[in-house]
Amino acid sequence: MSKETKDIDIKVEKTTSLTSDDVESLSLSNTISFSKQDKDDAKEIFYHDNKLSSTLNARIITMISLVGVIGTGLFLSSGGTLATAGPVGMILAYVVVGSVVAASLMSVAEVSCLSPNEASYVSHAEHFVDKSFGFVIGICDIYANIIPNELAAVSVLMTYWTDINPAVFITIFGLTIVIVNGYNVKWYGEIEFYFGIIKILLCVGLILLGLIIDLGGIPGDNDRIGFRYWINPGPFAERYTTGSLGKFLGFWKAINSAVYAFSGIQNITLLAGEIDFPRRSIYRASKRVFIRVFGLYIVMIVILSMIVPHNDPLIAESNGTASGSPWVRAISLAGIKVLPSIVNAVVLTSALSSGNLQVVKASRTIYVLASKRQLPKIFLKVNKHGLPYVAVGFTCAFLPLAYMAVSASSSNVFSWFSNVISANTLFSWIVMSVNHIALHRALRAQGFSRKYLPFTFLGKYGEYCGWYSLFFAILFLLTGGFPNFIHGYWSFSTFFSAYFIIPLALVLFIFAKLVFKSKYITPNEVKLKPLFYDVQARPEPPFKKLKGLEWLTLLWA
């Protein structure tokens, strides 16, 4: 997005460089009468001293979004999910959560394509709902992303190889994160792109290896497994009690783990202020990332359920080391000697990659809140490459929290961090849903329809994605810590990590209301016309048509 404050009152001509959808959107926008105030508001919304770099492209933003989701939730904590719910219970949990993720992603993408702002749904909450609401989700996002859960995972992963104090490795990887994020966002984007390729290759390799193990293709005494573990010890694990209720509770507990595994998928819209042609890039990335992530997750989870029994002692009662990773365990059970170390090494790069993204997300949210005068203006300082180095430095100052995991209870610390991330992810989905609902209420109140949006999903039915996501995100959040209410399972740490986001959001909202004295924005007061004007004033060219073998780039870009 351009960093200059310029006159955007330009004439839009329909040319063959635009797609039919673009032409229709522009045609609709041309039927709107724009006032000088609408144009001034558009300048204020999209050109408000944005000094951030605009060097990222669709290829990088797609990969950043992809690698931001595929992390320790899939590779490390999926063993606990399998032990909790059983093979079928785990698959059902991922499918249910995946449907909510799809609705949330379509909701935030539709709003972001209309208003591609930095910090995405944080800015949207202020524009469509209430300034205080935007402040709340901004602070909650910062709070969740300065928790270095991925860096803490390093202490778990490194114990697979050595007894050296994990603090040494946390220091090394922590400094690496600081270096990668401390100079130029393009460096970060390119590094994440190649990290992403490594992750995808790992996923494909694990899928093929899992099939070979399951079909008895490993030399030695390994016979064909098939769906043996679905029969014995069974398709569902009983948790907290016995019988059907115990199986349902196991499945519902796995929901929280699945949410953590999908956390980060909303980051597709995070860097909207640092992308060239943000509307088309966000739309393409949203479609591709979800299909790839959901497809990979379901295939990998199904294969995992076939090659490791859910009552295996190393995953059922994890000792807090990477040997409890279900993938490492499956390879060890097959008698393969070297491969577990290779898998663990790639998972280590995955943790580093996701840790990088946390720093990016927290720092950009800090920058946006500072630009709105809700945080000190010192956070607006950027270097010559457009990187908000003060905000990045502040975020990195919390990386030492990962040292909490340097103890015999490292797995517990990682679990607490995971619960915090899951709770905040659900709160983020709630905010995305509310923004989407507010947008459509404003459209109806001001006489517009979904056809005026530059990009949409599911046609006229896309309007209900926000309601679907809102209902289940609230349900998951309220029941996320339900084991604490079962006799004998109370734990203050797990209760706190599961529900602290609720009182935090309420306190922050009351504080913001008192300080900013903001008012709820009614549907008629939402500034829609400036957004439509920006769509008309800055049309984005379509992606070029791929020729020959260029279609292979769709596998990663």
What does the model show?
This protein has 557 residues and is mainly α. The protein has a single domain (56-443, 464-510), classed as Amino acid/polyamine transporter I. The chain is built from 22 helices and no strands. The radius of gyration is 24 Å and the shape is globular. The two termini are 20 Å apart. Residues 1-23 have low confidence and may be disordered.
CATH topology type: Amino acid/polyamine transporter I
DSSP helical segment count: 22
How much beta, percentage-wise? under 5%
Helicity level: 55-70%
Can you say what the CATH homologous superfamily is? Amino acid/polyamine transporter I
- Spans of at least 5 consecutive residues with low confidence: 1-23
Report the sheet with the most strands, covering strand number, pairing sense and barrel closure. none
What CATH architecture do you see? Up-down Bundle
Q: Please tell me how large the radius of gyration is.
A: 24 Å
Q: Can you tell me the overall shape?
A: globular
Counted up, domains total: 1
SSE succession:
HHHHHHHHHHHHHHHHHHHHHH
Q: Average pLDDT, to the nearest integer?
A: 83
Summarize the structure.
The chain has 557 residues and is mostly helical. It has helices spanning 20-30, 36-46, 58-69, 72-75, 78-114, 121-128, 131-145, 149-158, 166-181, 185-214, 228-231, 243-262, 278-307, 313-316, 326-333, 339-371, 389-396, 410-445, 465-479, 492-499, 501-516, 529-537.
Summary keywords:
globular, single chain, mainly alpha, 557 residues, disordered N terminus, Amino acid/polyamine transporter I
